């Protein structure tokens, strides 16, 4: 989840290296190995050594081994070793959203957070340790090239993604306007891998679309939670009030999220003041923080349904979860992505940085979005083939349901 101003904290960070000791063929024990007279390894002596907890001395010892024994040690710098250890330390957390950025990558990341950038226009995340498309943004190069929510990215310009961190993969996919990137993806229901070549562009995506449908139904498709989305949604509310619409469909499909406070702002149109939208759960690392509505609640009395799918993530899950918990609003479509964690960016003394997960999002009823995603009340799967044959059956179902409210 993005915040308006990343927190910059100067810290001193400790790093460590792990040493794996093997027994059996192919391993050489030097003069320091402990053996009895018969040449058998004395495990008692090893237990004395390895019963000790790792300390900073282990890092120093590891560096000495690399310096003295590694065949290409002259090509290794202290910087390589420390940054490699930092990356490994963050990776050991098992959290794809907690990562280390060396100085150059840290600068790129901060620029991308603060402003616009060229790229393909798709939100990327990790699902079961696999690089996955959360959603191609509306009218983006990714959408036009045929990339879909749920596609598993296997290679980026022929480089396998297995060993890549999420942010490093995103950096590889982004690039200068007019340049190309080729992704090989796996898609559910498709036997062979698909190769997609995308021409990068400057991403300019509308925040939302308003349309009045028959039977006095107001339809709002919200594509993302940018800073300007609050004002755009306010304008849409004005159109709803003037249109004479009596019911609302809020479409959050393929909305990858954005700013938390924008999600809270929009929730305020549908809920009374001071109603809980989401809780930031720090799991005992600090006091939990709650976010409540502060809007007019002018749309509170309107019958409402919400469309979601596997491309709905982060801020869109927060909004949908809050409205279901607080107003028993029905969710229609597919299970959401499940991106429900909070990251904080910490700057280090050498201009490198750590982006680390500090909390999880909980809906008003205490349900963890990260662990579960949101399961729709009315489940409607829709493939591209089904859409081509039968149209938007999820939207059709939403119209049917909201007419009955």
Gyration radius over CA? 25 Å
Distance separating the two termini: 33 Å
Structural class by sheet pairing and helices: alpha+beta
Largest sheet: 6 strands, mixed
**Beta-strand residue percentage:** 15-25%
In CATH terms, what is the fold-level topology of one domain? Answer: 2-enoyl-CoA Hydratase, Chain A, domain 1
| Total DSSP helices | 12
Q: Name the CATH superfamily assignment of one domain.
A: 2-enoyl-CoA Hydratase, Chain A, domain 1
Weakly predicted, low-confidence segments: 1-41
Helix proportion range: 25-40%
General form: globular
Strand order of the largest sheet: 10-11-12-15-16-19
The averaged pLDDT comes out at 84
Q: Got a strand count?
A: 19
| CATH class (first level) name of one domain | Alpha Beta
How would you describe what is shown here?
It is a single chain. By secondary structure, the chain is α+β, with helices and mostly antiparallel strands. Helices cover 30% and strands 23% of the residues.
